[in-house]
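Task: complex structure prediction.
Instruction: return structure tokens for all chains below.
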Amino acid sequence: MTARMDNRFAALKAEGRPALITYFMGGDPDFETSLNIMKALPGAGADVIELGMPFSDPMADGPAIQMAGQRALKGGQTLSKTLELARKFREGDNETPIVMMGYYNPIYVYGVDKFLDDAISAGIDGLIVVDLPPEMDDELCIPALAKGINFIRLATPTTDDKRLPAVLKNTSGFVYYVSMNGITGSALPDPSLVSGAVKRIKGHTKLPVCVGFGVKTADHAKAIGAAADGVVVGSAIVAQIAGSLTKDGAAGPDTVAAVSTLVRGLATGVRAARLVAAE
Amino acid sequence: MNQTPQPNSFRSGPDEDGRFGIFGGRFVAETLMPLILDLQGEWEKAKTDPAFQKELADLGAHYIGRPSPLYFAERLTEHLGGAKIYFKREELNHTGSHKINNCIGQILLAKRMGKTRIIAETGAGQHGVASATVAARFGFPCVVYMGATDVERQAPNVFRMKLLGAEVKPVTAGNGTLKDAMNEALRDWVTNVDDTYYLIGTAAGPHPYPEMVRDFQSVIGVEAREQILEAEGRLPDVVIAAVGGGSNAIGIFHPFLDDQEVKIVGVEAGGRGLQGEEHCASITAGTPGVLHGNRTYLLQNEDGQILEGHSISAGLDYPGIGPEHSWLHSIGRVEYVPIMDQEALDAFQLLTRLEGIIPALEPSHALAEVIKRAPKMGKEEIILMNLSGRGDKDIFTVGKILGMEL
Ligand SMILES: Cc1ncc(COP(=O)(O)O)c(C=O)c1O
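Output:
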């Protein structure tokens, strides 16, 4: 729906490989470092950027992302500053799609209309809001679509065929398939189960179907990317940041480089994915 | 508030999407949504199933000990010199609080749904104990999430839960109190949706929980209404209850909501005062937001980050409140007021000495409001208060504050 998102997925299709979608938490461990991380992502091989919005009560996240959110909040991150990150990033990159991911309350408190206007002007292409299922579409999904921002829905193993049409109805950009019943940072399930689920969803939609939760290594990316249009990596990146910090939680000398190294590895995974598929 | 058009009945909510006005709803992850719809379906069926209602009533009578007595607090009334004070004695229930009313109802639903594992969150440990109790009674394994801070200050209840066979998991995230325990329970639930039933302990969370918990707790108000009519031949002038998440309060309030002549007062934890952040007065000092599956009043900052509340009582230490209370506040039907830690502590001691009843610190907040109001009311007027739990669990906390050797 936004040109950046459609162009990116069209280009990847032409290239014949899945997207590498990288998540990091806005403001972790501080604004400047996280801006530098964000700027480094495309060069390291990220095709789409998921920009985490920290929330005090991340009910669907495991310890790695919980702690990233706490670091960001402690560093003074707010929703305005997360939008500011995107704005600054856009000064040097008008191609890479940015999807903001998080929970509804900070957006609700910011004000939905004001948030959407500010998100558009900051160059945001899509939103993933964990605690807004289709039953709550009037809150943010419909207003977002009306203003031209993608609303990317999560489909899960509990989303059966009966429910899938409702979940897909107002989805745009891509569909995010959550590989397991669980929280972020859990272990990767059997890739064959995941590819079965991806096929099932593809039977209901023409949108790209990307898979997240549990993807941590280039091998994972390769295995999952064989069937999916994209793989999302979050906890592994966030853990990489955590591992690079100084004792008191400040950015270390290698924080940005550590993320780049990991992402470069993951990028080789997605580039090898379709070779497996072709076997 | 005067301009808000009043509905025909205050008892008809929520609507089919689980909304009380703008409050309530179903703000949950997709993984949980199908299950929540199943639960709603099962609840709709159970509500009108005579067999379910009979089992509930039987267990109420023989396991919980219902009806709980309505007690005229003669010496307290005399001492305060004003309105007649009646207590609805939920502290005499099996396990020592109103929490068991809800647990019995929900465990029967869990059984009907074919679930095989129970999880719960707890603050004071009263809901954890009640959950562990019904899990033992019905043969379910049970995991209780409890903030690490609360594990410490409610040690006797932790021990009870363990004796009952439950696994108590301390939660260290955040401040280690009730909201953090609820986050962790939700994380367990999304991971184990297939076999697990989440037994929420208060009238909050995604639809249908606020409605369901209210209905299970309404037995309090239904009984109290009959009992006061029998004792006094009329309805009370004021009904008062403490509000944490709001289950004991909505339980006693709901049957009186359409009795316009009855004033209804919910008491929030004022902690160390409303100026700073050391309180839990979500309605008095909070703003609307979305947390734990529903829109309601929350303690939060201007960025929508949830604040950690404070209360002397672990059971009121929750930065939100059930959505129906938010609605009742917004339309002006119920008045919500704060009571400070010290006032609750004084009330706790007064009741203990005057009536020989050791109340829990949660209803001690309601009691402190009674103590403020009764002297200003006429001797012919009546206050009904929900004495939601007994204070055995709190004696160590209180002893420590009073500097007593235990
Ligand atoms: C005795 C007692 N009263 C009140 C409460 C507060 O909960 P609610 O507002 O749901 O009644 C608790 C919570 O633990 C409690 O133990």
